[in-house]
Amino acid sequence: MTALFGVRIGGQEAEPLRSAVEEFGDWHDRSEPAVAGARYSMLIPSAPLRPGEQYRFEVDLDACSGCKACVSACHSLNGLEGSEIWRSVGLLVGGGAAAEPVWQQNVTTACHHCADPACLAGCPVDAYEKDPVTGIVAHLDDQCIGCRYCQLTCPYEVPTFSKRLGIVRKCDMCSDRLAEGEAPACVQGCPTDAISIGSVSTDSLRAAAAAVDPVGVPVRLVPTAPVSSLTAPSTIYRSSKSVPASAVAADDHRILPASNHPPLVAMLVLTQLSVGALAVSQWTDRLGAPSTGSGPAVVLALLAAGFAIGASVLHLGRPLVAWRAVLGLRHSWLSREIVAFGAYAATTVAAAAAEAGIVSRSFAPYIGAAAVAIGVVGVACSAQLYAVTGRAWWRLDRTLLRFVAVCLATGGAAVGTTTAVAVWANGSAAPAWSSALWVVVAVPVAVVLGGLGVMVLRHRLRPGQLGRSVWLLTHTLRRTTVLGITLAVVGVVLAAYASLGLASGVAAIWAWALSLVALVGAAWAERNLFFTAAAPDRMPGGFH
Hints:
By secondary structure, the protein is mostly helical.
């Protein structure tokens, strides 16, 4: 009789089919303890961590074949969705010059469980924690609101957004397996033992990340990766081969636009329009505005702020728990921005009430000044929350300049429009200061366009982040760039036409209104480019 699960071959019964687990169990039982231990103890530490140490991935580049078994193992064990990737495999290439052989190297990468994780520092809801014993950076799914800010703050772009769940998720080094003395899925799945788990002192990680090479170049995990000083990543890549100076990621030539975030575009443009309109109206009030005062401008600022806050909620994967976004006030610039603009909206309501006479008008100047001050803080928080990501395109001075320019240009056009309406409705003469209002619009636009021109000339043929951003602006995103510049120029010309007395009455209203529309459109285009033209350094295989 044929044995169970066996087959008869040549009149004899073949051996029953056996699983890989059964085969391994038999091998392990037959082997000497020292032999089995030598093969498997090297994959995870056999001794407990000492104080000040943490786990880390250790990668033997010489052993990595690029088979992506680690990717499949991670995806299968963690039950990831089709669009979710927690581990990827890329390729480094180099050499090929005279007397330099062609060189290539596969690189497997996942979360680096940094000593100073930027995802944790930036999260507004404290949905990340770094285990004090193991050093593993874990994501708390139940805390996440799906704001995706961690995707921007992490220089390695590790967190992955799940549309189905409305949250981000990431590698936790299979901490449940490590707790039971088992290696993570990617480690066990690698057929060449290229990945293992080791331990390292967090102080040494920070010291190594802050170091520079003899010519002053910052340390990176591998060529073209983000600089390690941003987060002090723990992963170590070892190789017995020398790395050519020309080594780059094989996909380094792929200069693709980054993801756009329309709700954030709306939020940034409208908050800056709001703050700018309120600030310019408070300034013109001191110079002597029409009899209606700054009331219409305050109402416009309030409406813009309300739409901005509403738009920002649309960016969340779980908008019903948006209230949690203030929990990270101590460390997250996003939480600070939310608190600042929440206070700004409340103060602007009070300013509108004072202008309407609901609150004594004697308080109006003080309430308005307070609202402007809080709004300026909110704009500064907006600039800082992008600057801390380490992207050159979002460097603080560049970002703050663009944000302030939008405030002044759109705010000046908004006040010009409301003033023109007040002058026409009251039949009064235009105030003396209105002839200079176009300067408030023109100067910031000229500064931003001039700065953009200088950056294009300086970096159009250079490698690096800004070189890639310039290439995007002048090639892939060229239409948006041209549209933004055209609308900005049209807005300035219309403002000058209305402000210098070339138009009056209804014509002046139309000129200022169209100027406002053109400048808001220019700001919208610029803010789209703000997100899509960011071209950060990436690990090999960083494009999923």
